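#onboarding

Welcome to the new folks! Below is a worked example of what a typical request in this channel looks like: someone posts a single protein sequence, and someone else replies with the predicted structure as tokens. Don't worry about understanding the tokens yet, we'll cover that in week two.

Example request:
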Amino acid sequence: MGAREKKKKINLQEMPECEKIQLIKEVKEKLRQSVMEAKLWQSLLEAENLIVNGQTIFQEQEPLTGLNLKDEIYR
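Example response:
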């Protein structure tokens, strides 16, 4: 097993006001992104069929096939 990263403890009382504001904005944005990602995953789990660019990626009774990107798309 890998070593766990030690999380740095932050004392907001000792931080300058501008750093507090920046930190709070960053945490708020990360939480917002996490919530959006969770909602996306939930909606994908509830979908019976998932179609991307006209290709069926997932059907309720079949296993997930994934995406296959071709070089021709980007030319």
